[in-house]
Write a structure and sequence with these properties.
Blueprint: H1 2-20, E1 23-27, H2 41-52, E2 60-65, E3 78-82, H3 85-94, E4 108-111, H4 115-133, E5 139-142, E6 145-150, E7 153-159
Antiparallel strand pairs: 1-3, 1-4, 2-3, 5-6, 6-7
Length: 162
């Protein structure tokens, strides 16, 4: 019976991961811009992504805010669907540029992860912090591993399943 439930949970998790592969989450994106009341998230996000992609328009599907309005002024995250996987990947690669602009320094673009993936990601980031605290340098997370590059050679320092 337990194996059957575990199998169903594994299938459900995998289906959820596949469904989220097209999604990106934008954190810190203001809900309204002062002096520009009534402008929707869709248009402002399209403009932001176009600027991020060096003027190339990005075809996006649904745009939705999720979570409760807290009244603290903290913007709710936005989920967008990007149909083209290469465009999605390029957006994630270029998302670091948002820190350089004063109007988007608090905006982050991340993949849409399941709860299980979020837990795995958190463990990796915590391990990376620990390794850096212990004096190791030139480390980064890559495909579920913490790696170090030495003279162009990739050395795996930590694997998720250790």
């Amino acid at each position: 019976m337990r194996d059957d439930l575990r199998f169903k949970a594994d299938i459900s998790e995998e289906m959820d991961r596949v469904n989220r592969k097209k999604n990106l989450i934008i954190m810190g994106f203001p809900e309204t811009v002062e002096g520009r009341e009534g402008e929707d998230d869709d248009g402002r996000l399209r403009l932001l992504l176009k600027q991020l992609m060096d003027g190339e328009p990005v075809r996006i599907g649904t745009v939705e805010r999720f979570g409760k309005e807290t009244g603290t002024g903290k913007p709710r995250p936005v989920r967008i669907v990007i149909e083209n996987q290469m465009v999605r990947r390029n957006i994630l690669l270029k998302a670091k540029r948002l820190k350089e602009r004063s109007d988007t320094k608090d905006v982050y673009i991340v993949p849409d992860l399941t709860r299980a993936q979020q837990g795995e990601d958190k463990k990796l980031r915590d391990k990376l912090k620990e390794l850096r605290k212990n004096g190791q340098t030139n480390l980064k997370i890559q495909k579920g591993e913490i790696v170090h590059y030495d003279n162009g050679e990739k050395i795996v320092v930590y694997k998720q399943d250790q």
